[in-house]
């Protein structure tokens, strides 16, 4: 009887081993919100996916989305295995598809980020109250945190002469710089870059839970643990790791552990703007 059990176990092991190897060789699909045009996002994420491929011992391939809604849907529906998401994108992917946090980004050593309202250096606008009657640029229509931050300054959207959604942060920065808009809202790291190019920050939001790496709901616990370990292993003190981190964003300094409760502040902030 014992020999029979051992023989069955050996046969099952032989059958399952190729499946396990096949699974390990199956590419992981890495998505992202469209912070920039696809060519730039591809350039910024390639070093990270190459690192993950080496660290996990399996291919990691980019699957970029044209807009925030598609990025959310890709994670929620399991068309990607992990993704680089905004706070609101994470909350929606969690609600729609049980997405889980892997790690959060660190900006200049801080586990938070800010949204910033910017104008041209030569603009007479000094405060959010001065934006009444002005033309304002937002990013993606799904990025409701941007609108929540503006309204949280005390300015109602109806007080603006107009507001438009023009996609990527670089579009917003260029639109303000080129005088197509009087002001716009940027992620802090983009604002830091454009402060050197003629834009000025007139308002910075309170610290917000940052962009994060998120795993789709179908990712099992074992892989989730390996993904977390890979991101937390990156050390900006090592030149080869620093390049991976700063190519993604020049103001990033690494990744850190994260919990869902950290995003409660965003849940409260965007609640008036719907699901």
Overall mean pLDDT stands at 90
Strand content: 15-25%
Strands of the biggest beta sheet: in what spatial order? 2-1-3-10-4-11
Which descriptor suits the 3D outline? Answer: globular
Please give the alpha-carbon distance between the first and last residues. Answer: 59 Å
Count of discrete alpha- or pi-helical segments spanning 4 or more residues:
10
Order of helices and strands: HEHEHEHEEEHEHEHEEHHEH
The computed structural class is alpha/beta
Q: Which runs of at least 5 residues are low in confidence (pLDDT < 50)? A: 1-22
The biggest beta sheet, please? 6 strands, mixed
| Portion in helices | 40-55%
The count of DSSP E runs of length 2 or more, i.e. the number of strands, is: 11
- Rg calculated over all Cα atoms: 22 Å
Structural summary, described in words:
It is a single chain. The protein is globular, with a radius of gyration of 22 Å. The N terminus is likely disordered. The longest helix is centred in the first third of the chain and has 24 residues. The chain has 275 residues and is of the alpha/beta class. Helices cover 43% and strands 20% of the residues. It is built from ten helices and eleven strands. Helix 3 runs parallel beside helix 4. Strand 6, helix 5 and strand 7 form a beta-alpha-beta unit. Strands 2-1-3-10-4-11 form a six-stranded mixed beta sheet, with helices on both faces. It has a five-stranded mixed beta sheet with strand order 7-6-8-5-9, with helices on both faces.
């Amino acid at each position: 009887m014992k020999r029979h059990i051992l023989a069955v176990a050996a046969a099952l092991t032989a059958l399952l081993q190729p499946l396990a190897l096949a699974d390990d060789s199956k590419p992981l699909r890495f998505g992202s919100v469209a912070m920039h045009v696809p060519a730039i996002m591809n350039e910024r994420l390639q070093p990270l996916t190459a690192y993950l491929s080496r660290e996990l011992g399996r291919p990691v391939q980019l699957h970029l989305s044209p807009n925030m809604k598609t990025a959310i849907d890709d994670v929620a529906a399991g068309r990607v295995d992990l993704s680089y998401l905004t706070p609101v994108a994470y909350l929606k992917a969690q609600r729609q598809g049980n997405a889980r946090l892997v790690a959060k980004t660190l900006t200049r050593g801080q586990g938070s980020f800010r949204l910033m309202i910017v104008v041209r250096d030569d603009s007479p606008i000094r405060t959010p109250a001065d934006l009444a009657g002005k033309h304002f640029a937002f990013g993606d229509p799904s990025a409701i945190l941007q609108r929540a931050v503006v309204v949280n300054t005390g300015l109602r959207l109806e007080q603006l002469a107009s507001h438009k959604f023009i996609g990527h942060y670089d579009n917003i920065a260029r639109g303000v710089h080129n005088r197509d808009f009087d002001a716009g809202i940027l992620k802090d790291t983009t604002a830091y870059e454009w402060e050197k190019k003629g834009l000025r920050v007139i308002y910075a939001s309170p610290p917000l839970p940052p962009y994060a790496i998120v795993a789709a709901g179908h990712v099992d616990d074992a892989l989730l643990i390996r993904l977390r370990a890979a991101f937390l292993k990156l050390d900006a003190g090592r030149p080869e790791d620093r390049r991976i981190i700063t190519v993604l964003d020049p103001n990033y300094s690494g990744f850190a552990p994260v919990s869902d409760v950290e995003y409660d502040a965003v849940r409260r902030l965007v609640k008036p703007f719907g699901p």
